[in-house]
Amino acid sequence: MLWNSEEAQLLKEAVLNLEKGFSTLPKFEPQLKAEQLKPVLLDVAEKMRDNYPYFHPFYAGQMLKPPHPVARLAYMLALYVNPNNHALDGGRASSRMEKEAVAQIAAMFDWKTHLGHLCGGGTMANMEALWVSGRLNPGKAVAASDQAHYTHGRITGVLKLPFREIESDNKARMDMNALEDALKGGAIGTVVATMGTTATGSVDPLPEILALREKYGFRVHADAAYGGYFTLAATLAKETTAAYRCLDRVDSLAIDPHKHGLQPYGCGCIIFRDPSVGALYKHDSPYTYFSSHELHLGEISLECSRAGASAVALWATQRALPLTREGSFARSLEKCHAAALDLYKRLCDDARFMTAWVPELDIVIWVPRANTVSEMSALSSKLFEACAEKNLHLALATLPARFFGKGFKGDEESLVCLRSCLMQPEHLDGMDAIWNIFSEVTEEVTA
Ligand SMILES: *Cc1c(COP(=O)(O)O)cnc(C)c1O
């Protein structure tokens, strides 16, 4: 299931091809004591069995998506050189590939100008955006919805910027009246628009946020860590599409290639629309930049050392699967969305369950119907565990009970619900099998 001999053969051919570039060097055989490494590696393999099967469509829980084979292979290939993209001296080819890959991401959002780079992940990308915001609007607050990623509160703590939490509406999107009230209070320098919340995939109303910017003046940062790639999908609801269509007007944007972009972990991306923010990073370390006058990635990044392999893997993936609305990558995202709509419909058609709203992206939340919030929470947890025993891996989320309407006794404010991130296109084809298990398990648990 995991092993594929074609993949191994491809890696061998590619490494031998890479080696040709260094053929003028005196012979140098790397030391590898296979007989000593074997027990270690087999032990590692055994330990790694203690994982949920993230690579299988029966893993339909948290926000985890298997990397594309081309990303895995290109990453491994790059490891034979192990470039460091902190400066051109650390990785010439991989720095170029990073710039190209990031430019393709900026073009995906129809940006005409950009400055940006890869980073460790969405948290780092958001931190960098808010760091720039803080430099440009010193002392002013950052506002994000109560459904925004939890790290925004923490990041602003690190940056010593005030944080304003804006209430969400009943579809988990930032409430525009609440935002305007906060803006009237003044002193908000940045509004974070979440383009796909981590819990439910809800997309903040960016057109309205941008309209408020005209009136009150603030920076807009789009946290598209999870949902950014859906800008390529043609099947989203009208309102959701309208929000994506104005991403070319935000000031900065964070997107995670290691979420929906088919990359191994350690690949986030931050882009700024105005390249002049690069001046804010200025420093003059005596050791990093000694051989080039070009602008290095290390000169426009908060992090220093970064895996060049991440850039190589991303570049290779985007070469194989271009970020276009016409391409197969866009179609695979639409399949994820379709899988969510499929699951949503099955849940709506079944009196045993209650769902919230039509999924905007590919995350579905639901609960087994019961009289009270606490009963539904307890049942959700039971179903979650019972499904896992049958190899079907869902996730749990604690969310405001108001997301599920009013057809129950609200003995508690928060409700533990079931949540499924359908991030693999294979989830669509596998939905019958997933549903059959889930339905049977529900039958057993509620009997
Ligand atoms: C995942 C996520 C983050 C954090 O990204 P990491 O890559 O996990 O650091 C931030 N914002 C949103 C909306 C996310 O979904």
Provide a quick synopsis of the model.
By secondary structure, the protein is of the alpha/beta class. It is built from 14 helices and 11 strands. It has 2 domains: 92-320, Type I PLP-dependent aspartate aminotransferase-like (Major domain) (Aspartate Aminotransferase, domain 2); 328-446, Alpha-Beta Complex (Aspartate Aminotransferase, domain 1), CATH 3.90.1150.170.
Topology of this protein?
Blueprint: H1 5-19, H2 34-48, H3 69-79, H4 92-108, E1 115-119, H5 122-136, E2 141-145, H6 151-159, E3 163-166, H7 176-184, E4 188-194, H8 206-216, E5 219-224, H9 238-245, E6 252-255, E7 268-272, H10 308-320, H11 328-348, E8 353-355, E9 363-368, H12 373-389, E10 395-400, E11 414-421, H13 426-429, H14 431-446
Parallel strand pairs: 2-3, 2-4, 4-5, 5-6
Antiparallel strand pairs: 1-7, 6-7, 8-9, 9-11, 10-11
Helix pairs in contact: 1-3, 3-10, 4-10, 5-6, 7-8, 12-14
Describe this structure in words.
By secondary structure, the chain is an alpha/beta fold. It has two domains: 92-320, Aspartate Aminotransferase, domain 2 (3-Layer(aba) Sandwich), CATH 3.40.640.10; 328-446, Aspartate Aminotransferase, domain 1, CATH 3.90.1150.170. 40% of the residues lie in helices and 13% in strands. It has helices spanning 5-19, 34-48, 69-79, 92-108, 122-136, 151-159, 176-184, 206-216, 238-245, 308-320, 328-348, 373-389, 426-429, 431-446, and strands at residues 115-119, 141-145, 163-166, 188-194, 219-224, 252-255, 268-272, 353-355, 363-368, 395-400, 414-421. The protein has a seven-stranded mixed β-sheet, sandwiched between helices. Strands 8-9-11-10 form a four-stranded antiparallel β-sheet. Helix 3 packs antiparallel against helix 10 (308-320). Pyridoxal-5'-phosphate binds next to helix 5. Residues 121-123, 126, 149, 151, 194, 198, 223, 225-226, 256, 268 line the site of pyridoxal-5'-phosphate (PLP).
